[in-house]
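Final report, closing paragraph on structural work. Over the funding period we assembled a curated collection of sequence-structure pairs, and we close with a single example.
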Amino acid sequence: MDTFYISHGSPTLSIDDSLPARHFLQAWKDKVFAEKPNSILVISGHWETHFPTVNVVNGRNDTIHDFYGFPNKMYQLKYPAPGAPELAKRVKELLIGSGFKRVDEDKKRGLDHGAWVPLMLMYPEANIPVCQLSVQLDKDGTHHYNIGKALAPLKEEGVLIIGSGSATHNLRALNGSGPDSISQWALEFDTWLKDALLEGRHEDVNHYEEKAPHAKMAHPWPDHFYPLHVAMGAAGKDVKAELIHHSWSYGALSYASYRFNSAS
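Its predicted structure, as stored:
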């Protein structure tokens, strides 16, 4: 099973039909990934903890509306996907077995919008169990790549692994420009990332702070980028990356999304 990095961009992806990324995700089962997974693991840029943490939910996941100042109808949206407690325990088992000394469990947390917004478009029936895994802002890309490597066996167990973030994510630098007028720094970082992934330069991506142009401008905080490292690491050996969607909004917010597959 392939792994994926989805740029979920703005929370308005949940309601705004003018966003090409919305239509890309709505066509997911028809055009991208027809196989139905038995469960889904989402690494979201909206869950930050000091140690890797999984949500162990029995019953339905709560829908967390972790955004502010948006239209009221967005706060009425629900995505009551079942929890995946067995997957959560398996994730913890794999991480500890790979040398991560501490993995925490959260038995109350539901799905943040980095998980439920794309999933409600990809799998609107909300009938596939979902587990979330957090990111660690005090660690680096290699740490998250190694988390992904530890989780690679899940691909053979029917688990769809999705990293959910944004290829560029500087909310203070967004503007009203149209898709034909993209900030130069965002374009250069986004192009570098595409080239590095498609050419298999994983170590460059792991050390993007030193290797990429405008890295700090594109990601003042790494929360929305680390999910990519997990997805890339989880793909396994001899990884090939494919750009499966690309669009922009607000002049600097890239919706670039990638598929990772391995020959071994």
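The longest strand covers residues 39-48. Residues 184-198 form the longest helix (15 residues). We thank the funder for supporting this effort.
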